[in-house]
């Protein structure tokens, strides 16, 4: 292998740093990569003709990834750097180095003799040729001035596989010999086995050979996602997926997957998929036959596209149904969560806030009042003689009193107020932005309502109850936290009880 030129030295060093050291050491031992027997024989036939031209050699070479890479690396070596632009196609390269050097380079590189691994490389050659033809067609639609270089890059995008097969012949069958293995799966296996996949290996190899930076970058990122604004890169990346679909055991399903990805980027009409498939159907069979790469099956491009579109339609319907089901399941979960959350905040008997929710809300509102210089009041309520009521009439009557009192209390509060059961027969009401006098009036409405309405009936007889109420306002004391505010209201409530029950006391008044 020749060393990288000065232009690529930094890139070569960067790629070497990314490549596992054991892998670069093994690859450095591979002086040559195997080439297609049919291509090598064809070049030998061309060399025997007196009228052979550079164009004849370029046409033969450009269908072989290994030879193409080698010719372009020679053309881009230091000896030929006088040209302003690096070669982007095989024809550019042969023109730069001339007929004699082209022939010498090619013939020194043809190692098809006794190549016992040629059969296992068949999928590699088929994918490379199919991808190159597809990429060239796509580039004619999206970036015509780059179609030649896109063809070359697509042809070389998997040259890392060829290098790995050559460096590790004993493992090639296990890594690459399984039929109908997806390209993505191959890359995952390479990642586990080598610590990187073949796109990085290919880029490193081309950098080592002295290819120009644009080609190296393109190969390194040839297997990235389709989300790119570079049309040449997009044609390259799509070409591999198209080749995989074309060569797949289930081409319609595979092609539908490619079309799904493309539709997410741009309208499929821009890609002229029917034209691409027709071009592949017309171009590939004679090309593969010439190269000795018989196609596994004959593909009907019209039928393939029709079936792929049907698969895509079915997938869309299935996806829509799944999304609908997921949305409904999500709504159900959210509703269930909201219901559970609401239940976790409520006292089941009175349907008012429970103690935990009261204390959490009071803590938050206390802090808010301190930071915004607002006020609030709390009303602490205790039902009088409740233990006597339970003992005389039973717990069922006691529960009825608590439930009715809870509904009555809920009917008296405003939006933004919070009433809850603090424990047993004790209740607490939080009144935001209410001073002590307003809280007193609210408490007195409670006592009047209890005088007017019974809270239960026992043997058809009305049962009236009274309450002792304590009120505390935030602005009436130097309360350090919400606990001290509750204690102040509780103390006022006990003052009411000691004063005869059935009334209201306000802290500090």
Automatic annotation (TrEMBL):
Coiled coil: none
Matches recorded under Gene3D superfamilies: 3.30.70.270, Hypothetical protein af1432 (1.10.3210.10)
Domain GGDEF: residue ranges: 374-509
SUPFAM superfamilies named among the record's database cross-references: HD-domain/PDEase-like, Nucleotide cyclase
A GO term from the CC aspect: plasma membrane
E.C. code: 2.7.7.65
Occurrences of domain HDOD (ranges): 33-225
Entry protein name: diguanylate cyclase
Superkingdom in the source lineage: Bacteria
Listed Pfam families: GGDEF, HDOD
Organism of this sequence: Vreelandella aquamarina
InterPro entries for this protein: Diguanylate_Cyclase, GGDEF_dom, HDOD, Nucleotide_cyclase, Rev_trsase/Diguanyl_cyclase
First-tier enzyme category under EC: transferase
GO terms, molecular function: diguanylate cyclase activity
């Amino acid at each position: 292998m020749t060393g990288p030129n000065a232009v690529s030295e930094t890139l070569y060093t960067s790629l070497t740093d990314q490549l596992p050291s054991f892998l670069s050491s093994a690859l450095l031992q591979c002086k040559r990569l195997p080439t297609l027997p049919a291509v090598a024989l064809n070049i030998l036939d061309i060399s025997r003709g007196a009228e052979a031209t550079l164009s004849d050699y370029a046409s033969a070479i450009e269908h072989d990834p290994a030879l193409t890479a080698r010719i372009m690396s020679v053309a881009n070596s230091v000896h030929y750097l006088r040209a302003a632009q690096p070669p982007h196609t095989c024809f550019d390269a042969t023109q730069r180095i001339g007929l004699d050097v082209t022939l010498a380079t090619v013939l020194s590189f043809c190692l098809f003799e006794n190549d016992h691994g040629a059969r296992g490389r068949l999928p590699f050659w088929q994918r490379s040729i199919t991808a190159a033809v597809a990429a060239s067609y796509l580039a004619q639609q999206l970036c015509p001035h780059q179609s030649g270089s896109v063809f070359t890059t697509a042809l070389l995008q998997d040259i890392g596989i060829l290098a790995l097969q050559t460096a590790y012949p004993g493992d090639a069958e296990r890594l690459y010999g399984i039929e109908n293995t997806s390209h993505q799966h191959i890359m995952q296996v390479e990642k586990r086995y080598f610590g990187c996949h073949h796109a990085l290996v290919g880029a490193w190899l081309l950098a080592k050979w002295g290819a120009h930076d644009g080609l190296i970058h393109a190969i390194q990122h040839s297997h990235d996602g389709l989300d790119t604004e570079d049309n040449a890169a997009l044609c390259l990346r799509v070409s591999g997926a198209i080749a995989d679909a074309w060569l797949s055991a289930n081409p319609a399903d595979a092609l539908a997957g490619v079309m799904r990805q493309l539709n997410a980027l741009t309208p499929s009409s821009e890609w002229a998929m029917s034209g691409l498939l027709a071009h592949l159907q017309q171009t590939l069979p004679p090309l593969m036959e010439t190269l000795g790469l018989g196609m596994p099956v004959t593909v009907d491009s019209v039928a393939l596209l029709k079936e792929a579109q049907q698969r895509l339609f079915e997938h869309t319907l299935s996806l829509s149904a799944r999304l609908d089901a997921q949305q409904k399941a999500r709504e159900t979960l959210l509703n269930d969560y909201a219901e559970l959350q609401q239940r976790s905040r409520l006292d089941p008997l009175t349907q008012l806030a429970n103690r935990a929710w009261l204390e959490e809300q009071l803590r938050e509102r206390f802090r808010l009042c301190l930071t915004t210089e607002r006020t609030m009041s709390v009303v602490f309520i205790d039902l009088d003689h409740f233990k006597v009521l339970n003992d005389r009439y039973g717990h069922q009557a006691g529960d009825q009193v608590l439930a009715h009192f809870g509904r009555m209390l809920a009917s008296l509060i405003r939006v933004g107020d919070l009433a809850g059961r603090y424990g047993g027969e004790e209740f607490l009401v939080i009144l935001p932005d209410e001073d002590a006098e307003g809280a007193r009036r609210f408490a007195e409405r409670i006592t009047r309502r209890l005088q007017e309405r019974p809270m239960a009936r026992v043997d058809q007889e009305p049962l009236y109850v009274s309450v002792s109420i304590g009120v505390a306002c935030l602005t009436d004391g130097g309360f350090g936290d919400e606990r001290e505010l509750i204690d102040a209201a509780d103390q006022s409530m006990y003052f009411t009880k000691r004063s005869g029950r059935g009334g209201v006391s306000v802290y500090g008044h």
